[in-house]
Amino acid sequence: MSKLSGKVAVVTGASKGIGADIAKGLAREGASVVVNYAASKEGAEKVVSEITQAGGNAFAVQGDVAKEADVNRLFEETRKAFGKLDVLVNNAGVYQFSPIEEFSPELYSRLFNTNVLGTLLATREAVKLFGDNGGSIINIGSAVTELHPPTSAVYTGTKGAIDSITAVLSKELGPRKIRVNALNPGMIETEGVHSAGFIGSDFQKSIEVEAPLGRIGQPNDVTPVAVFLASDDSGWVTGETIVASGGHR
Ligand SMILES: NC(=O)c1ccc[n+]([C@@H]2O[C@H](COP(=O)([O-])OP(=O)(O)OC[C@H]3O[C@@H](n4cnc5c(N)ncnc54)[C@H](OP(=O)(O)O)[C@@H]3O)[C@@H](O)[C@H]2O)c1
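^ thats the input. predicted complex w/ NAP below
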């Protein structure tokens, strides 16, 4: 039997990059998947059609995780479709590195509202749908909380908050059998990383020199760890921060 058959998962920010690959990976193991996106309808529909063509079950729901009404609607649509939830992957996230001299409240709001407020809003709604058997919440953090790269104060701040929120909620939700873990990737080649100009940069080159495994990652380096955290294989694991970075720290 597949590891996630009969389970229902919501993956935020699943129209591309790491989220899209995780959505497909959870579906391959038998989960029904709600593919959330903010703007990329086409990307989300492609993920859904790849899942359904492979015999899986998925549908897309637009919703900006930084907007409370959108998040409420995302989980209401999940409830209407499946009546329950077993796995939440808080993946939707944005990143931008800039020197402190260029810091602005707008940058702070953009990154914190998506990466932190979005995680908290989605988690609040998700826990209402978890049943008596609990479930698994996987917060996509980042290896930056170990690396502390210069010019990343705001982004690393958001992911430091994710590490702390993960630890707190693992204690708070453990009595309800809800496990909460952070999955913190190193640099992964995604659409977002291309748009941010990291590919081909000195930052990428320095990672390739410093990482024991000598390369940046691909989304499918992260997905098997997410599947592990979603499944009963990790049934005794909560409050952990798993770094998937080719050993770069
Ligand atoms: N790639 C890396 O090197 C790396 C490393 C460590 C951690 N991470 C983390 O991994 C996550 C995914 O990164 P990625 O590189 O895959 O990013 P990406 O390629 O830019 O994709 C981001 C995804 O998030 C969605 N999204 C963005 N803002 C959203 C919002 N407000 N509401 C709902 N969805 C939203 C996007 O949807 P639309 O396209 O529809 O806007 C898209 O599906 C992020 O949390 C990031 O911080 C990435």
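The pocket of NAP is lined by residues 12-19, 36-40, 43, 64-66, 91-95, 114, 118, 140, 142, 185, 187-188, 190-193 (CB under 6 Å).
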